[in-house]
Amino acid sequence: MNTIKITSIVALMTVAAFASYAKADTLHYDKQEGMLLDHRFEYYDNITGQNSYWEYTSAFKANSDTLGDTFRLFCVDQHTHTSSTFDSKFGQTYYTDALNSESMTLYNQTQKDALNSLFSHVYSTVFDTNGDYINKSSVGAFVYQMAVWEIVHEQSGVYAIDSGTFGVKSAKTGSADDIDFYNSAVGLANSWFDAIAGNVNWDLIGYDTVTNYDLTIYVAEGGKDISQTFISVVNTEDAATPEPASMLIFGLGIAGLGLARRKFVTK
């Protein structure tokens, strides 16, 4: 009986360890990808009180130990920097979870629905299947990350990039204010938010192609605010493949469960 208990415990511990392994990944910053630095926006945040600060709204690319391929990441936590270990060599460990899962409680259902709508209608018009900008100088290339921030940080319940508790109030090109670019950026972002709210049909504003993505959230090991949290179109649950050694241990654990069951039945 003691043998049965020990075998079962070891097997269950192995299964639990495997489950944890499948939800962890190490991300490496892709230094070759670069960032868009032509324009930046002056943000305000009436909730945190962080007003009149300037930021570039360019998402960047990374690769991972699990997935290998380079893919696009979008920042979720504004004012939070990546860890100093988040580099091309060592990387940083993140826990992954599907945006739509019940266990992902960082965002409410309204935010989840808005993010799903934004990505399914707009992402493929700004980025190709490799996560590269289709047109790096287009307004959409500068606005997409901004739209993600608006959805996550806006507290008024109404998404609009130039009003509410969070948004932008000006734009710069180098050292000069760029009023025309600001107006174009605000107009484009707000047209997306009008469609998300159901005030206008997506196809009427030129977004009639729908691509549904299984969005993944990357939360830094140690928790939110320890390092930047990211969102990606990469579906880690479908793409993740355990290492051969892990599969061997997992197989031994399952075999142990079978052995314990047989001993229990024969007794």
Structure description:
The chain has one domain. The chain has a 6-stranded antiparallel barrel with strand order 1-4-5-10-9-6. Strands 3-2-7-8 form a 4-stranded antiparallel sheet. It is built from 6 helices and 10 strands; from the N terminus they run αββββββααββαββαα. With 267 residues, it is α+β, with helices and mostly antiparallel strands. The longest helix has 23 residues. The N and C termini lie close together (9 Å).
User: How many domains?
Assistant: 1
Side-by-side strand order of the widest sheet: 1-4-5-10-9-6
Beta-strand content? 15-25%
Helix segment tally: 6
Query: Helix amount, in percent?
Result: 25-40%
- Order of helical and strand elements: HEEEEEEHHEEHEEHH
Radius of gyration: 22 Å
Task: Give the overall shape, derived from the CA principal axes.
Answer: globular
**Amino- and carboxy-terminal Cα gap:** 9 Å
Number of strands: 10
Task: Please state the average pLDDT score.
Answer: 79
Specify the biggest β-sheet: 6 strands, antiparallel, barrel
Briefly note the structural class of the backbone: alpha+beta
Uncertain spans: 1-22, 239-267
